[in-house]
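Predict structure. Chain length: 193.
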Amino acid sequence: VHGCNDTFNKRLYIAAPLDNATSCSHIFYADYAKGLDAVNIRWSLWSSSKWNPTSILMDIDSNEPFLRIGSSLGVYDQDTSTRLDEDLAITTQVRTNLNPQVLGYINQLTSLRIRAAGSGTLETRTYGQDENLLQTLAEQTLTSSPGRDYTLLSNSCNEKIAIDFKTVDAGDWLSLNHVILHIQALWESRPIL
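Prediction complete.
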């Protein structure tokens, strides 16, 4: 396991072996700009069929950090303007944690408001516990300067609900700034049938 802490941008990069790998196969990326506690830290899992990371280095020349990933095939630089990986789409996907944190109740998500910028089409789905798909919400066309929040209507019911935001077309990108869930308890427990 190898790691690097970008204290300037408050990001962690941790290379680790997953899925029965004997050497590092994935990178855990954490953005802790809003805090290091479980609620505010944001995690992503990176992997590629082209490389297995052997080391992670931060080069902080002129106060501008760059992520470099070393592998047996060479050294890779992070290019934040890149939207394609060798002509393949880089999928942008964000999933919230399961909400709410109150146990036992059956909850209903009636709508959500999001502040997002990007390009392409945003697909939004709701999931319950055990990864069961609850609902596919209306697609939104993203712009780089939307000037407003997007409101998505929902009728998802479950003990806990996660929201999945995704762009899938080559060159699409997403910057998700905040999510407000309108969720309420519907029943105290499941009806006995």
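Summary: The mean pLDDT is 82.
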